[in-house]
Design brief:
The protein is an all-alpha fold and 66 residues long. Helices cover 76% and strands 0% of the residues. Helix 1 (7-34) packs antiparallel against helix 2.
Length: 66
């Protein structure tokens, strides 16, 4: 199925996947190193951003994979 996508679609999926992975790694490894109480009081914002990234990735799959 991946071979059926053109270069723009592959690039869109790759960049959105890369953004999702970078967010996951930064929020799992870097931020807790700087702030041990992460997410602490900002749990609502963290959940909102995580859901936003998830929805963006699902949208990219639906749009670019069509």
């Amino acid at each position: 199925m991946l071979a059926a996508l053109d270069t723009g679609q592959k690039l869109g999926l790759g960049l959105s996947g890369l953004a999702f992975v970078i967010f996951a790694l930064v929020s799992a490894m870097l931020i807790p190193h700087w702030r041990p109480d992460f997410p602490g009081r900002n749990l609502g914002w963290f959940i909102f951003v995580a859901i936003l990234f998830f929805a963006g990735m699902m949208s990219a799959v639906l749009i670019f994979g069509a």
